[in-house]
Design goal:
The protein is mainly α. It contains 24 helices and 6 strands. It has 3 domains: about 210 residues, Clc chloride channel, CATH 1.10.3080.10; about 200 residues, Clc chloride channel, CATH 1.10.3080; about 130 residues, CBS-domain, CATH 3.10.580.10. It is about 60% helix and about 5% strand. Strands 1-2-3 form a 3-stranded mixed beta sheet, with no helix packed on it. Helix 23 links the parallel strand 4 and strand 5.
Length: about 600
């Protein structure tokens, strides 16, 4: 019989062996991505079933009915909106007791090396399910991607994978979730690259694709229907049509930016009131009731309403009014504290913009210049591309939903114009825009967290030669003979940093022995805080044109000395490492990577 100590260590040795295999081999890592995709598909199906079941119970819907496709909902049933708002507010209140902002997949991949908290994931999922289930005008994509990406993050955390591998698994989980939600693996994969990973990388291609296929397969096997769209009535496209679709893309970009600013404006306006945070969703729910009494199409994400409107001709006046009401309802829902996103809602808004655009063009020309269904689908993709920031994702969604390659080429023109104009005129997607309003600095999921980990305090040289600034030259010569040091940092009577003096200055002609060495000090105000990241450090070197800089604490006490040459060398080494990882090279670490210095996501 094996000794007890050996038996106790067997699980640890197995885990270490698995970790080495997954870290060193691409095949094993793809197998991990497959598991993540399966988990994402299951969590997406479960959340969709819970939200739809809650809507059915509250609003008396049949199993195959959609809330937004209802013809009319009575006032008593609409009281569920403020009740749901109260529940969302209470969950949000409980979340604020942790005194830490909830982290989504985009922020986790950009700043935290893909590390996500399962507690955060469950809170976001609960808030989103309550918001959507009780009828607020918000989509479920926040819950889908949070849980899908969380599956990847937790698996990577358990196996202690590299930073780059963790980020890839987080993207793979998001890909599996979106692919499961729409039955569209291509759209899911592109969503991961454009939104969650932040770049198309050869190393992530196979894992993300496998996860997207697995998520889509699992969701459909569990009975979740794919996202099928009505085919356009006209299959022929002319050069004139591409120009019209490009113009539609421009209109969608402007409307998308306006919607994002509307949500932010409402949120900021509500924030300036004295209304408690937990009570704001209740007020938002009450404001939604009169709009929902005009038409239930503004409720939930709008899937049912979109399909109904795509297959039924509507008057232009009604389309314009419905578009305004849906924009207002989404702004009120998210601005007043309901949880969710604009992905699903923007798809519905986009179909309305496209239909309105086509109707106005045909009315002005007194002819069927542009097909209304084609324009609706192109508008759906273009507006979502502006809001979500993922043009290829939306083009693939239309392609997989219609199986129409001719239409997909026109949609591509619309989404490219929409995405380009939004980037140039606004610079944010909805997720990064809201993060920016809360003080964030990222504009995509591109990995910038490693730069925050390289701080002045970590790179500085400790144990610098120091002297009191009042020390006389003759005493300084005794302390530092010729050749013993290059520079000396000076401290004032209170122990604060007071500049740097070259040792050669002690021995310069004209240096009187009784002169205080503080008279020779330069760069007295050239210092930087220990917490400054590597980018801030390099900017400071550029501004001051110095080759060495003091690192000080908040009180001005000297902590160490930074060399510009060393800082730039370390930055170049880390940048090269990240680029090699992006291209698929397996970069070995001597330890558990630079992530160890980042604040963990608990």
């Amino acid at each position: 019989m094996a000794p007890a100590s050996a038996a106790d260590g067997l699980p640890l040795r197995l885990l270490q062996g698995l970790r080495r295999r997954f870290r060193s081999g691409e095949t094993g890592f793809i197998a991990l991505a497959l598991l993540v995709g399966i988990g994402a598909g299951l969590t997406t199906w479960l959340q969709a079933a819970l939200a739809h079941g809650l809507q059915g119970w509250l609003f008396g819907l049949s199993d195959d009915a959609r809330l937004s496709a209802s013809l009319k909902i009575g006032f008593p049933a609409l009281l569920a909106l403020p009740v749901g708002g109260l529940l969302v507010g209470l969950v949000s209140l409980a979340a604020t007791l942790r005194k830490r902002r909830l982290i989504d997949a985009v922020e986790a991949n950009a700043l935290h090396g893909g590390r996500m908290s399962m507690r955060d994931n469950l809170i976001v999922s609960a808030q989103t399910l309550l918001s959507n289930g009780f009828g607020a005008s918000a989509g479920l994509e926040a819950a889908y991607t949070q849980m899908g990406a969380g599956c990847g993050s937790q698996l990577a955390k358990g196996l202690r994978l590299r930073r780059a591998d963790t980020r890839t698994l987080v993207g793979a989980g998001a890909a599996g979730a979106i692919a499961a939600a729409f039955g569209a693996p291509l759209a899911g994969a592109f969503y991961a690259f454009e939104i969650v990973i932040g770049a198309y990388t050869p190393a992530a291609l196979a894992p993300v694709a496998v996860a997207a296929l697995a998520g889509s397969f699992i969701a459909q096997a569990m009975g979740m229907p794919p996202y099928l769209l009505p085919a356009a009535s006209s299959a022929d496209l002319h050069p004139r049509d591409f120009a019209l679709f490009a113009l539609l893309g421009l209109a969608c970009a402007l409307i998308g930016v306006a919607v994002m600013r509307l949500v932010a404006g409402i949120e900021q306006g509500v924030g300036r009131t004295r209304l408690p945070g937990w009570c704001r969703p209740v007020a938002g729910g009450l404001l939604l009731i009169p709009v929902a009494m005009v038409t239930p199409q503004i409720l939930s994400s709008g899937h049912g309403a979109m399909h109904a409107d795509l297959t039924t001709a509507q008057p232009l006046q009604w389309i314009a009014l419905l578009l305004l009401m849906k924009c207002l309802a989404s702004g009120v829902s998210l601005g007043f504290g309901f949880r969710g996103g604009l992905f699903f809602a923007s798809l519905f808004m986009g179909t309305l913009v496209g239909a309105l655009f086509a109707g106005l063009i045909n009315l002005a020309a007194n002819d069927a210049v542009i097909d209304v269904t084609s324009a609706s689908l192109a508008g759906m993709a273009a507006l979502a591309a502006a809001v979500v920031g993922a043009p290829m994702t939306m083009a693939m969604l239309v392609l997989e939903g219609t199986h129409d390659f001719v239409l997909a080429s026109a949609v591509m023109a619309a989404v490219l114009v929409s995405g380009t104009v939004t980037r140039q005129a606004f610079g944010y997607s909805f997720s990064t825009w809201r993060l920016h309003l809360r003080g964030g600095t990222i504009t995509s999921a591109r990995d910038v967290g490693w730069t925050a980990a390289m701080t002045a305090g970590q790179m500085m040289r400790r144990g610098a030669n120091t002297l009191d600034a009042a020390t006389r030259v003759e005493d300084a010569r005794k302390r530092f003979p010729r050749g013993s040091a290059t520079r000396v940092a000076l401290l004032d009577a209170a122990g604060h940093y007071a500049g740097i003096v070259p040792v050669a200055a002690f021995y310069a002609d004209g240096a009187r022995p009784d002169t205080a060495i503080g008279d020779f000090a330069d760069r007295r105000s050239v210092a930087i805080a220990a917490g400054a990241d590597v980018l801030a450090v390099m900017r400071r070197f550029d501004e001051t044109q110095t080759d060495e800089m003091a690192v000080v604490d908040a009180q001005g006490h000297l902590l160490g000395i930074l060399s510009e040459a060393f800082v730039r060398k370390r930055y170049a080494e880390e940048l090269d490492k990240r680029q090699r990882e992006m291209m698929g090279e397996r970069v070995e670490d001597n330890d558990d990577d630079i992530d160890d210095v980042l604040p963990p996501a608990r």
